[in-house]
């Protein structure tokens, strides 16, 4: 997916993404979708990269590669269940226990 967008990752970002995706897979629930989950994570990382680049001055951007995800772009993906992007409540009717 990153190759299609002509984006590469720094070694640190690549390692963090790998660990995060493994973590998501290890703690998946019934709503987990491999391709959808990867797409959401990659799109979020690219959004973070765009925001980081937009916050830079023109001189800073000239010194920075705009086709590489850095660790800053993926650092928001925490290896902790409370930070899941995919926290969902159940779908359907709630049971009334009264």
* Domains (count): 1
User: Structural class, from helix and strand content?
Assistant: mainly alpha
User: Which oligomeric state applies?
Assistant: single chain
Name given to the CATH architecture: Orthogonal Bundle
Tell me about the largest β-sheet: 2 strands, parallel
Fraction in beta strands: under 5%
Summed up, what is this model?
With 98 residues, this protein is mainly alpha-helical. 47% of the residues lie in helices and 4% in strands.
Plain-language structure description:
The mean pLDDT is 85. The chain has a two-stranded parallel ribbon. The protein contains 4 helices and 2 strands. It is mainly alpha-helical. It starts with 7 loop residues before the first strand and ends in a 24-residue tail after the last helix.
Labels describing this entry:
98 residues; mainly alpha; Helicase, Ruva Protein, domain 3; two-stranded parallel ribbon; 4 helices
Question: What's the topology here?
Answer:
Blueprint: E1 8-9, H1 11-26, H2 34-54, H3 58-62, E2 68-69, H4 71-74
Parallel strand pairs: 1-2
């Amino acid at each position: 997916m990153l190759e299609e967008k002509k984006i590469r990752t720094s070694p640190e970002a690549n390692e963090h993404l790998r660990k995060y995706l493994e973590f998501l897979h290890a703690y998946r629930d019934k709503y987990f979708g491999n391709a959808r989950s990867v797409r959401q994570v990659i799109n979020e990382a690219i959004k973070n990269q765009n925001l980081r680049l937009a916050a830079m001055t023109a001189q800073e951007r000239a010194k920075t590669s705009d086709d590489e995800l850095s660790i800053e772009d993926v650092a928001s993906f925490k290896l902790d269940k409370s930070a899941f992007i995919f926290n969902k409540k159940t779908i359907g009717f709630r049971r009334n226990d009264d």
